[in-house]
């Protein structure tokens, strides 16, 4: 039996979708301090990996699913993107993004929309002809069932132009020692098994600390490309950690992480029609 079918069978036996209002509440509560994550070791590594994955964005249109305050939307603009549309479930996070754009005296360079990225987004004024790049950073860490995960992939691929680039951060190894202590600025305070995957409580070492619950399915954190390929993504690859400046400058510091990485930045392309 294919991994997808195995997980479907398990998740249909009682695991329900994450409660939308709870997710909103958690991210609204941490919205003000969330960008502090970028100063933590994990945040620096993640940012550099995403920048490498995005590459040259000159003149491109970008959709950032689960983009929060627009941290990586701003990165895409710095890399040359013409416009970025951010979709996120947290009004608190989106408000901060709006405020950043306002402070820059820009209009319609980065647009912010509130929605659940696991559900159809046809009610939003997104680009009908699709986007050159679709980002989905950490959204799969809120997929506790195949139904939710499939909804996310439908939006990723549905809004990506043929030949377009996908970039996303995902969980890699939820039992990695690198995430079971706070050496790199983030840790799981607990990890529990759920059908087809795990649920966990994340703590980010911001000031004050940020906590929120997440969930990930094995079909994602195992490194399987089955879901990507099933929805029409090809050339799926993980950006090498050693390609980042932070790892190159201090490989000894990153040794524990590199032995069993707990996060991965993935890039892929949508098949040409």
Account of the protein in words:
By secondary structure, this protein is of the alpha/beta class. It has one domain (3-171, 216-251, 264-268): Rossmann fold (3-Layer(aba) Sandwich). Helices cover 33% and strands 27% of the residues. The chain is built from ten helices and ten strands. The protein has helices at residues 3-11, 20-34, 41-54, 71-78, 91-103, 146-158, 218-221, 226-230, 245-249, 255-259, and strands spanning 61-65, 83-88, 110-114, 131-136, 160-171, 186-194, 197-204, 210-217, 233-238, 263-270. The strands form two sheets. A seven-stranded mixed β-sheet has the order 3-2-1-4-5-10-9. The protein is globular. The two termini are 29 Å apart. The model is unreliable at 1-19 and 28-32 (pLDDT under 50). One of its GO terms (molecular function) is methyltransferase activity. Pfam families: Methyltransf_25. Residues 62-164 form the Methyltransferase domain.
Keywords:
273 residues, alpha/beta, Rossmann fold, 10 helices
SSE blueprint:
Layout: H1 3-11, H2 20-34, H3 41-54, E1 61-65, H4 71-78, E2 83-88, H5 91-103, E3 110-114, E4 131-136, H6 146-158, E5 160-171, E6 186-194, E7 197-204, E8 210-217, H7 218-221, H8 226-230, E9 233-238, H9 245-249, H10 255-259, E10 263-270
Parallel strand pairs: 1-2, 1-4, 2-3, 4-5
Antiparallel strand pairs: 5-10, 6-7, 7-8, 9-10
